[in-house]
Specification:
With about 350 residues, the chain is mainly α. Helices cover about 55% and strands about 0% of the residues. It is globular.
Length: about 350
């Protein structure tokens, strides 16, 4: 899985990764030569213009807020004085909407730099508005996954499924712990965590995290067939390229030749998550296999369990799944096994 992630910063024409120059318009697409940039102009123009337009709008809204002298409805220096409950100040909402529009425009470019920039914006928006009135937290775990940051994705999901559900959590208190879960046990049981998860995209992302771990352990098991024919140093290097960072950092797993118990544990967790997603929204798994026009729908509102909720979660999560070789096949197998009884 480690080498299989599709997202990379490269020239969209030839996939070159060296000596790249950024597009001066959007700054998130890079080319190896002027020739290739000109050749890609027709395809890239719309997405590039969208980034430039939304960036300009966000900059305008930000400058207006920073220049505001303060009044009865909004304090001066609102980025500091209003931090933590930003969206609750009505005058900041145009800025927040403009910033989210920029995130959407960035993600249309589908490059490593675009995903990194979008994630940075979303995390900063969450710092401004901890309670997340806009629901931007739904996009964060799949973006972490697209960047290969599975641990960060899990930590984020766990915080929202645990601390954020505490009845007396102090949302307006900047001294209260916020998104402070770090290096949680990604192999742990999902039962308790799932009871606190509210966002469909978080449960779907948690499922993908577990599937990635499962695929990694299966890759290690398969590597045993060549273990007797190679020096240990060479074998260790091969193993390191087969797996993602979570497994690669786990010395106990990497030094072991037996993974059966962990594999069975992950299969059980995966089955639980598959069932939970299906119970929350029966439309999601079939749409993941056959997304069609769901990826282009623009639902303005949704009800839990409805098609619109599925469409939003699918749009947030789909790229992270198709960029993980073998992940969708795992879901396909589960669905086929379920149908066959």
């Amino acid at each position: 899985m480690a080498k299989g992630l599709a997202l990379a910063q490269c020239c969209p024409i030839c996939d070159a990764k060296q000596n790249l120059s950024r597009c001066s318009g959007c700054h998130v697409v890079s080319y190896c030569s002027r020739e290739h940039q000109v050749g890609d102009r027709k395809r890239h123009k719309q997405a590039c213009n969208a980034v430039k337009t939304t960036q300009k709008r966000m900059d305008y809204e930000e400058q207006a807020l920073r220049a505001h002298p303060g009044d009865f409805s909004m304090p001066a220096n609102v980025f500091e004085a209003g931090k933590g409950s930003f969206y609750g100040i009505y005058g900041t909402r145009d800025y927040m909407a403009a910033r989210f529009a920029l995130v959407e425009a960035l993600l249309k470019n589908n490059t490593l730099r675009a995903v990194e920039a979008a994630l940075d914006h979303l995390l900063d928006m969450l710092q401004l508005c901890r309670g997340d009135n806009m629901g931007v937290r739904d996009l964060v775990p799949p973006l972490y996954l697209r960047l290969g940051k599975d641990q960060e994705s899990y930590d984020f999901v766990k915080w929202w499924g645990t601390t954020a559900q505490e009845k007396h959590y102090r949302w307006r208190d900047l001294g209260a712990p916020y998104l402070d879960v770090k290096d949680a046990d990604v192999f742990e049981s999902v039962k308790t965590l799932c009871r606190g998860l509210r966002a469909l995209s978080h449960i779907v992302s948690l499922t993908l995290i577990k599937i990635r771990l499962l695929l990694d352990l299966e890759a290690l098991e398969n590597s045993q067939c060549i273990s007797e024919r190679l020096p240990q140093e060479v074998l260790d290097n091969i193993k390191g390229h087969l797996v993602g960072p979570i497994v690669a950092r786990n010395k106990g797993i990497m030094s072991s030749n037996i993974h059966h118990d962990r594999v069975e544990q992950l299969r059980t967790q995966m089955d639980q998550l598959y069932g939970l997603v299906k119970a929350r929204n029966e439309h999601f798994w079939p749409a993941l296999l056959h997304p069609g026009q769901h990826l282009h729908a623009r639902p303005e509102a949704y009800t839990k369990g409805g098609i619109a909720e599925m469409q939003l979660a699918l749009q947030y999560c789909y790229a992270s799944w198709i960029e993980t070789p073998g992940a969708i096949n795992v879901i396909r197998d589960l669905m086929e096994n379920e149908e066959s009884g």
